[in-house]
Amino acid sequence: SAPAAPAPRFAVPVLRDPALFERADAFFKRGAHEGAPALDELDGLLRALLDAADAAAGGARACAEPGGPVAAARAFVDKRYAERIALEDLAAVARTSRYVLVRAFKRELGITPGRYIAAVRVMHAKSLLEQGCTPVEAAGLAGFADQAHLGRVFRNVTGLTPARYRAACAGDAS
Q1: What's the whole-model pTM score?
Q2: How far is Cα 54 from Cα 61, in angstroms, rounded to an integer?
Q3: DSSP E strand stretches across 20-154
Q4: Domain ranges of the chain
Q5: How far is CA 168 from each of CA 67, 98, 165, rounded to the nearest angstrom?
Q6: Cα 9 versus chain centre, distance
Q7: HTH araC/xylS-type domain location, by residue (predicted)?
């Protein structure tokens, strides 16, 4: 049996809702000991965490400007995630400076453009792995430099290696 994914560790508390903290803590502890978590449970937890972050930010996600720089940059990333995307490219598409774009991303989404690109790529890699692609294939198709790059980012985002995620999905299909 492969070793369990380590539970995430944070230097300072990032969640101040005790009930949501307990839910997240229990989820990650189960995942670390039982392997790949149920995707529906993960989806529900992520939505609850995003809602909590949105509320803590004063509803910034709900106030995002539909035709603003973040929307333009996100649309670009969503279409061209498999290509090399530089911050300068996103700023040009958004018709703003790199600095303004980074601040707008943090205000509206709570993350930097680089983290958004990584999240979109991981989402596509997960889909490819679920369809049976190897981690090497998924890395190339999802826009990662190589399999090692996919592995680092994927594990950082999901807590699992791409191979373990693929195996868990294959186990669910049988």
Answers
A1: 0.64
A2: 6
A3: none
A4: 13-63, 69-112
A5: 39, 39, 5
A6: 17
A7: 71-168
